[in-house]
Amino acid sequence: MANVHILDHPLIQHKLTIIRDKETGTKIFREVVNEIARLMAYEVSRQMPLEDVEIETPLAKTTQKRLAGKKVVIVPILRAGLGMVDGMLDLIPAAKVGHMGVYRDEESKKPVEYFCKMPQDIASRQLLVVDPMLATGGSAIATIEALKSRGGKDIKLVVLVAAPEGIKELQAEHPDVDIFTAAVDDKLNDNAYIEPGLGDAGDRLFGTL
Ligand code: PRP
Ligand code: URA
């Protein structure tokens, strides 16, 4: 069963409260989403594999550590996932970025895929799927299926707010995918929005309310 990592560092919790507040406007919302993503990248990257490398300091030869393997791929789920990309890239600047376009149909709440552009060799890379919201789980599940169908194996999901319902669905469909979230909220409402949540993440990020 996939692990759920709740990243409840005080700075993350403080910033999450700012973006939950309905009085927070687009400019601050966008900035703070990126700040949280940066802090989450630090926690998520704890598990990155290292390898030994021999170097020479000005004084001696020495064996030290460096990141092993191919470059990470950050996969934002459009649109709202885009809000987390720059913050993640601040800490993992050499990462590649693969875009996945999925939106939730307003009536059915089911995911609709409209775009997918991944770097080569995703089979041998660590893939970090980013989206502020895990609600029913449909969008994340569809994205992970798309990545697996292209050979993706090492996949993690990084969200800001998760609903228990979405976590359960994702664990059932993709038990191999660990979930990193800043908060697990109470529930989904009748419209499949997370409560207390932060509203519509894409609309708040891009000012399309
Ligand atoms: C939001 C959010 C997730 C999805 C979560 O996107 O950014 O991708 O809903 O809901 P789910 O877990 O029930 O699938 P939305 O469909 O609003 O698209 P947008 O980012 O383009 O606004
Ligand atoms: N999408 C959002 O942006 N917010 C929610 O609460 C649920 C889905």
UniProtKB/TrEMBL annotation:
Single GO cellular component term: cytoplasm
Keywords: Allosteric enzyme, Glycosyltransferase, GTP-binding, Magnesium, Nucleotide-binding, Transferase
Cofactor entry: Mg(2+)
Alphabetical list of SUPFAM superfamilies matching this protein: PRTase-like (SSF53271)
Pathways involved: Pyrimidine metabolism; UMP biosynthesis via salvage pathway; UMP from uracil: step 1/1
Mechanisms controlling activity: Allosterically activated by GTP.
Catalytic activity, reaction form: UMP + diphosphate = 5-phospho-alpha-D-ribose 1-diphosphate + uracil
Cofactor binding note from Swiss-Prot or TrEMBL: Binds 1 Mg(2+) ion per subunit. The magnesium is bound as Mg-PRPP.
Class of this enzyme: transferase
GO molecular function, one term: GTP binding
Entry binding sites for uracil: I194, G199, D200, A201
Domain spans labelled Phosphoribosyltransferase: 7-208
Short name of any one Pfam family annotated for the protein: UPRTase
InterPro entries: PRTase-like, PRTase_dom, Upp_B, UPRT, UPRTase/APRTase
Keyword Zinc: no
Catalytic activity, EC: 2.4.2.9
Binding residues for 5-phospho-alpha-D-ribose 1-diphosphate: R79, R104, D131, P132, M133, L134, A135, T136, G137, G138, S139, D200
Lineage top rank: taxon: Bacteria
Gene Ontology process terms (BP): UMP salvage; uracil salvage
Assigned protein family: Belongs to the UPRTase family.
Function (record text): Catalyzes the conversion of uracil and 5-phospho-alpha-D-ribose 1-diphosphate (PRPP) to UMP and diphosphate.
Protein name: Uracil phosphoribosyltransferase
Gene name for this UniProt entry: upp
